[in-house]
Amino acid sequence: MNVVLKPFLGRSALASIGRLMACSVIASSLIACSSSEKDYSDATPLSTIDTRIKVVPLWARLTGDVPKSAHAQLPVKFDGGRLYLANRRGEVAVLDARTGKLDWQVKLGEALSGGPGVGVKRLFVATRKAVLIALDKITGVEQWRQRISSEMLATPVVVNGQLVVQTIDEKISVYDTATGKKVWDYARTVPKLTLRGTSAPIVVGDKILAGFSDGSLVALNLATGELLWETAVAAPHGRTDLERLVDIDGLFDAANGIVYVSSFQGRVAAVSISDGNVLWARDMSSYTGLAISAEHVFVTDAESKVWALDGRTGATLWRQDKLAGRELSAPAVVDDMLVVADYDGFVHWLSAEDGQFMARENLDATWRKLHFVWEDEEYEYERRSVSVVPLAVDDTVYVRDNVGALTAFQLKH
Fold first, then answer.
1. How many structural domains does the chain have?
2. pLDDT (tens digit, 9 = 90+) per residue, 99-144?
3. Residue 394's Cα: distance from chain center in Å?
4. How far is it, in rounded angstroms, from Cα 107 to Cα 109?
5. Cys-Cys crosslink for 84: which of 57, 77, 155, 183, Cβ 3.0 to 4.6 Å?
6. Cβ of 354: how many Cβ atoms within 10 Å?
7. Mean pLDDT of 353-375
8. DSSP 3-state assignment of 211?
């Protein structure tokens, strides 16, 4: 029997794992598990900062809740001035990115676990029961359904009329976007114990790059599924299955012929896309993942410390420890800054140059500001934790909290 774990963030890696609850694999589908209320007593208290930039809340609207500890699940996607998003109740919506105004919405009536992937004519989501659904991008009308091998948590990738899907049974499958017909698939053995999560594959040229729960990064031929190379980003070590977890579950990215990737209880590494050779690597645990800029790699580690590494060498440029234990999202790069959000609904803008705080916003206070609450109206504070990575588009950042609100912030220079 295989087991899957839901990470308890904001702790050191092994201390966190000891508090996790296991669940079983039934008919090749991993079933989510519940855990007791999280203890944030070790979270670093926020200190007062000197605000260096002006951040203006533009709008906020309810979009339906996302799974807690979602990581890369149900992120917000931008395309052509619109935002595409789904919630776990089965609603898919398109918003105007500038105003937040609803363009269209459909209710599929089934719980969703992954997506949306956005193509030229269609967008794609997947249900908890492992069904892939294609919707018309302009109208939301359903076009086809296709049974997939297992639950899809990662966002699918659309390229050249093909849809690349990674499922939690360690499979990469490619489907025709017009018909839903499977073109090919590539399978690996599921480790005995894994975190509940899947990194989203990326496509560079004619290669699919994908990370797996055994700490391996692979390159597959987009047209045929042929394995081109395989590299161990992290090697399991320790005597117990818990100690040997090395999942690649977080976001990774590529630029200039190099893919940058992180793993849980493993390493952050720079790997040559052409041949899979590791150019540099250093020990660091991360399950939310990383973001890159022209010269830097930004990582949120398993203790919610934020790192900036030199993209050429992996050397530490700076480390921000004042958010440790606050269960941070993966970072997003905006302008010459990066943005992370925490378990208590605070969004933090950090300088990309030195990691210093530039601005901070509270999502619940912002919601009350944008949706006026009368003095005699009862209002209960909500902890708007954020596990979905913020989306940065030009000078605007979109933050989706786990309560179900999407908030747009704009930098004012």
1. 1
2. 999 999 999 999 999 989 999 999 999 999 999 999 999 999 999 9
3. 19
4. 6
5. 77
6. 10
7. 89
8. strand
The dihedral formed by the CA atoms of 94, 155, 352 and 276, expressed in degrees to the nearest 10: -150
d(CA 238, CA 280): 23
How far, in Å, CA of 236 to CA of 242, rounded?
10
* C-alpha to C-alpha distance for 341 and 94, rounded to whole angstroms: 23
Give 307-346 pLDDT, tens digit per residue: 999 999 999 999 999 999 999 999 999 989 999 999 999 9
Q: Which residue, 147, 135, 144, is CA-closest to 77?
A: 135
Whether 177 is covered by a domain: the verdict is: yes
Contact residues for 66 (Cβ-Cβ < 8 A; gap 6+): 73, 74, 87, 88, 387, 388, 400, 402, 404
Tell me the pLDDT tens digit for each residue of 5-32: 333 233 333 334 433 333 333 233 333 3
pTM tops 0.85: yes
The CA distance from 380 to 392, in Å, is 29
| Structure-token match 């117990």, residue found | 240
Q: Is residue 101 part of a domain?
A: yes
Q: For 123, list phi and psi in degrees, rounded to 5.
A: -125, 160
**Helix (H, G, I), strand (E, B), or coil: what is residue 342?**
coil
Range of the domain at 155: 73-187
**CA-based R_g, the chain, Å:** 20
Residue 179 to residue 170: CA distance in whole angstroms: 24
H helices present in 83-209, as ranges: none
Lowest-confidence region among 33-47, 56-70, 153-167, 174-188: 33-47
- Find the CATH number of the domain harbouring 96: 2.40.128.630
Paired tokens of 376:
């005699």
Nearest-angstrom CA–CA distance, 115 and 92: 10
Compute, in degrees rounded to 10, the torsion defined by CA atoms 95, 165, 27, 69: -50
Write out the two tokens for 203.
Answer: 């496509």
Give the C-alpha separation, 221 to 11, whole Å.
38
Q: Is residue 360 part of a domain?
A: no
Nearest one of 178, 136, 170, 176 to 152, comparing CA atoms: 170
Distance from C-alpha of 298 to C-alpha of 287, rounded to nearest angstrom: 13
